[in-house]
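Example (one chain per record):
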Amino acid sequence: MDHPFHVHGNAFQVISRDGQPESLLAWRDTVLVKRGETVRIRIPFNDFTGKTVYHCHVLDHEDLGMMGNLMIES
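Predicted structure:
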């Protein structure tokens, strides 16, 4: 199943998919990770410190724990 991966409070760039460079380095807060795919992202933590979350935007997945915390310290 595909997963729309979302990071709260920090925009990121997708830099590669399955080891292949991403052609569009747009800033975003959500990326669709396709079934079996590996996505590498780059996040600058310039504007926010503290605790935030990342999670799958499929509500059932989020409710079942497909989420985590980021602690951003300056």
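Caption: The longest strand covers residues 50-56.
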